[in-house]
Amino acid sequence: MKQLKITNYELRIKQSKGQVAIIVLLVSAIMLSLGLSMSKKEVVDVKIATNDELLKKAFDAAESGINYYLGTGGTDYASPAGDSFAKITATNIGVGQTVDFGEYVPNGSSESYWLVDHIASGDLGTSYLPDASVDVCGVGFSGLVEVNYFYKIGASYYLRRNMYDLNSSCATVDTSLGLSVLLSVTPVINGGKFYISANNGGTFASQGVDVSSLGQAGGTQAGANAQADKKLNIRQRYKVPGFMTSGMVAEGSILSD
Questions:
Q1: Fewest CB atoms within 10 Å of the CB: 109, 116, 126, 179?
Q2: Which residues fall within 8 angstroms of residue 124, CB to CB, at 6 or more apart?
Q3: Ordered alpha helix ranges (H), the chain
Q4: Residue 195 φ/ψ, nearest 5 degrees
Q5: Where along the chain do the CATH 2.60.120 domains lie?
Q6: Is the pTM value of this prediction over 0.85?
Q7: pLDDT digits (tens, 9 = 90+) for 118-132
């Protein structure tokens, strides 16, 4: 009997040791999982921080690229540190027989359309629209519009102002008085969208440029495993000279530069 009791006691000890070993293994597995999870989280946090930094650099490069193009006309920009770059593209606006900016014009505000080209400096050129008339049209618009037609004879600029009732149609503006320079369209009561169309096959000059700048950071940097892109777009319309802007609100019809 005593030997049996000892044997049972030894058996219980062995069973207890086995349970302890299993518990130790479970605890070790849990600790290992937690350690791996924390390690993975730290790696993810570092990657997110790196990507945020690269995105910021890409955005700064895209913004600097636009300024670089507007200042120099260049289409390839590199940051002073050489760790970010930008590729710039510029597309002329409105070249063709129709000019449609697709923008809503509130009542009392004006949309301007150039009938002459511009040189590289932004000043007026010498290539004028040859058409004797231009249609001014509304897009789903019905109401009164004021149209200012600027033209040039010799060294002097002139202005003819007319009021048209579009009534969901187009109004034909006489552009045969001289060298055509500019049309401005102002809705009187209701705002709307407008476009102009040449009647005799002429081509409108560029109204400005759409500039797109793709900034890039990472990838080409030594040791960098991530690359970030950021694109910015701006529309650069040719400005209306001050003497023409004054003429739009003045009662007189003769302007001088």
A1: 126
A2: 116, 117, 118, 181
A3: 2-72, 242-249
A4: -150, 165
A5: 94-206
A6: no
A7: 998 889 999 999 999
